Amino acid sequence: MAAARTPVASGPAATPGPVLFARYAYPPNRLGLCGPDDAPGLLNGASEGADRQLRMLARGFEGAYPYLRLIADENDLADPLDARVVDAYWLGSPLTAAVRPRALHRDLVDRFRGRMATTDWRWLEAALAGGSRPVHAFHVLEIFPRIGLMRGGRPDPIVDTMDACRIRWGRILEVIGDRLVVKVRRLELVDGRLQLGPARTEEAAGWLGGGTTVLPGDWVSLHWSWACDRLTPSQVARLAGWTDLALASANRSL
């Protein structure tokens, strides 16, 4: 069977920052989980490259946008939607590592301290002292459970939700129209510790609209069962490394 092609986004060097942000932000937004109530605007804006519209929508993401602003400020970059900043937040990069723990601590105090129990805040502060940085995996694995979603005695559905929310990486096995069959490692809770299990096969939606194409063997980033971007091997290594760091931090404070 001849390999079909389906469009997804190109890498951060070629994709404008607002478009790259929208490609990652749209999958949960379409489910009503975060950001402004305008999923069609994100979808159309990303496909058409509507810079002004996407910038306005991005500011409505109360979870993600402050991290972008923090990464930009800490790296002396004027634009929170600079493609390098967006890439740093979703995948992790040297820009993420450059954020000072004190600056991240101030940001989290302002945004989340009042929503956490004292014990949870102490665990989070321990994670910050251990080297956590403002990458999306940190938010999913550390902030998400600390505001009440991990300690209700029902770990499996919660872990599944965290797995869907984190940025995953998968290798394409087959392209079927606008669907991708990918092999990806899933998040598991084993003996009280979070870890990545063996790779399994699942389906994801390919991004609809303009962009580059993907083929079997390519790597893609995944967010809520959507392929957000085609990844280079170095991007996969970065994402895997930052995910491992976030997992280690989360396990220290479970």
Q: DSSP helix count? A: 11
Total domain modules: 1
How much of the residues is beta strand, in percent? 15-25%
State the distance separating the first and last CA atoms.
47 Å
Count the beta strands.
Answer: 7
What Rg, in angstroms, do the CA atoms define?
17 Å
Whole-number mean pLDDT: 86
The ordered string of helix (H) and strand (E) elements is: EHHHHHHHHHHEEEEEEH
- The outline comes out as globular
Query: What percent of residues adopt helix (DSSP H or I)?
Result: 40-55%
- What can be said about the biggest beta sheet? 5 strands, antiparallel
Strand order of the largest sheet: 4-3-2-6-7
The low-pLDDT segments are 1-12, 149-155
Structural class, please? Answer: alpha+beta
Can you describe what's shown?
The protein is α+β, with helices and mostly antiparallel strands and 254 residues long. 41% of the residues are buried. Helix 1 (17-30) runs antiparallel to helix 2. Strands 4-3-2-6-7 form a 5-stranded antiparallel sheet. It has one domain. The protein has 11 helices and 7 strands. It has helices at residues 17-30, 39-48, 51-58, 64-74, 83-91, 94-97, 101-112, 118-129, 136-149, 155-165, 233-253, and strands at 6-8, 168-176, 179-190, 193-205, 212-214, 219-223, 226-231.
Primary descriptors:
single chain, 254 residues, alpha+beta, five-stranded antiparallel beta sheet, two-stranded antiparallel sheet, 11 helices, 7 strands
